[in-house]
């Protein structure tokens, strides 16, 4: 799904809605109902939203709430008649433009195009000033249907390398609520965990997150650790996870999420929120069978994987049963990277309680660290 052509329409399915859709043929239009707009919009990362008049639409209130939740979004309001009082109110609420239909409907596409140009200019200005990096607010979800693939090791190493190789704001979220794991690979000891954000989840902001997160010593990567407690894990619901992800998207450039292998509503919602899903697997027949089962489940659940899901082939070595070429005969998903096997090198770091890397420019890196560094640097270009 190309976000450059994505436009969100909030309102009722009325004559005005039909008129708007007829004048925006170049865009992928996603209609959001008035009743569930907040819940539905959280599943996306909207750039431009068109709110339009309806019999039961409280336009000013909706625009205000949208602006509070998505402060960087551009909002256009469409009304059926000139109303200076309403124009003042919706502008104060956060709308950037006000259009009258049908008298001004022919200018709708040009106004939307202008919004896109403004958004692009803002991004370019932020990049040149160093306040923005490619991938602003992007969620990378690491998942595998099979245990023992090295998923947590790769997600933590990926996040730490992202931080070392850029000036981006990066946070790692450990959503393995019962047993954790990120703290082991990053050498972090703490009694704090993401469950501590539960009391403030409805007004969650960057300040709350930074108060609870830990920093990895060498890269200064921020990490929200798992509670590592089955009873505490039961207190985490889908709403908590979505609100946490949404708050992180507003405050960080990259959000790296480590997910458990089991699929429930919480895991599914994170996968839906993710901009990219990295599926970690090994080069053997059982791994292919599990991936086939996962793919079938994703299809039945309606999870969009095209252009979003990529494979990470871990433990690459001569002793593997299969090669990448063999895998490509059975699997249509693209391979993002192959990570070489180095059990001794990785195990040594884990036993010492230190991450694979300690500085930006290190000469002696073990093979997996080199592979991850090459992968991340190519992605950042």
UniProtKB/TrEMBL annotation:
Gene3D superfamilies: 3.40.50.2300, P-loop containing nucleotide triphosphate hydrolases. It comes from the Bacteria. Coiled coil: none annotated. Residues 138-306 form the AAA domain. InterPro entries: AAA_dom (IPR025669), P-loop_NTPase (IPR027417), ParA/MinD_ATPase (IPR050625). PANTHER family: SEPTUM SITE-DETERMINING PROTEIN MIND HOMOLOG, CHLOROPLASTIC-RELATED, SLR0110 PROTEIN. This is Pilus assembly protein CpaE. It comes from Rossellomorea pakistanensis.
